[in-house]
Design goal:
0% strand; single chain; mainly alpha
């Protein structure tokens, strides 16, 4: 069961962090270069809608699988190593940032799009971009900790 939990946990991390990397480093610059705001902003809304469905699943499964592994392997947090504590804290911060993005700037971007207020929608997209950059950085840090942390 540990192997299954770890597999689900890692697939969640790959999908979430990989999706942010693709969106931020690949899609964002091309969309900004090739598409005008009346096309670019609804594109981002639709992309986020699909991606956030996956992230919702991930932010439910990753804590469940993570806590399962902590309690199954170490009988709780008392004996876990620093790398596990760091991944736990950073992962919770990432979830909180996602929740903020979803319920604040993303929701407001969609409201602005519905009202055809492209300037406000663009402003909200800019907020999302900054928060995704932060979350991407945190996710990459967790990746380093997950792969090398036990050797510290």
């Amino acid at each position: 069961m540990i192997a299954f939990a770890l597999s689900i946990h890692m697939l969640g991390a790959i999908i979430w962090v990989g999706g942010m990397f693709f969106a931020y480093m690949c899609l964002r610059p091309v969309a900004a270069e090739m598409l005008e705001p009346p096309v670019r902003l609804p594109l981002w809304s639709a992309v986020f809608a699909r991606f956030f469905n996956w992230v919702w699943l991930i932010v439910m499964l990753m804590p469940l699988t993570g806590y399962y592994m902590i309690f199954k392997n170490w009988d709780g947090f008392t004996f876990v190593t620093i790398d596990i504590h760091l991944m736990h804290v950073i992962g919770l911060l990432m979830i909180l940032l996602f929740l903020h993005v979803y319920f604040a700037p993303y929701r407001r971007m969609n409201e602005a799009l519905a009202a055809n207020d492209l300037q406000e929608a663009a402003r909200r997209l800019g907020q999302i971009r900054v928060l995704v950059a932060v979350n991407l950085t945190l996710g990459l840090i967790i990746g380093v900790i997950a792969s090398a942390g036990r050797y510290w």
